[in-house]
Design brief:
The chain is about 85% helix and about 0% strand. The chain has three helices and no strands.
């Protein structure tokens, strides 16, 4: 696993999370604009825009975290696989 692969996986997951979070936030802002009017302290901002921004920001964080978790799991599996291959190549001791 190269650093380029790690970078591409985490970046791709973060971007996918941003898109999904933004779409979810946009839909939530369209369906319930009064809810977002209550939770934003400034009234000059459109509730749909705030919901889209919060959804996209959260999606980047969660998507990037999921990508990092996937890289860690892949690293552990490769490490265990390499350990098994090394054990298979060692001849057993004879007493």
């Amino acid at each position: 696993m190269t650093w380029k692969h790690v970078f591409l996986v985490v970046t791709g997951c973060a971007l996918a999370g941003m898109v999904m979070g933004g779409v979810f936030g946009f839909a939530a802002g369209k369906i319930t604009p009064e809810f977002f009017r209550r939770i934003i302290p400034w009234q000059e901002v459109e509730p749909v825009g705030v919901a889209t921004f919060f959804g996209a920001t959260t999606g980047v964080l969660l998507g990037g975290g999921l990508g990092c978790f996937g890289i860690v799991v892949q690293g552990i599996l490769e490490w265990r696989k390499r350990g098994r291959e090394t054990d298979a190549n060692v001849e057993p001791r004879r007493s």
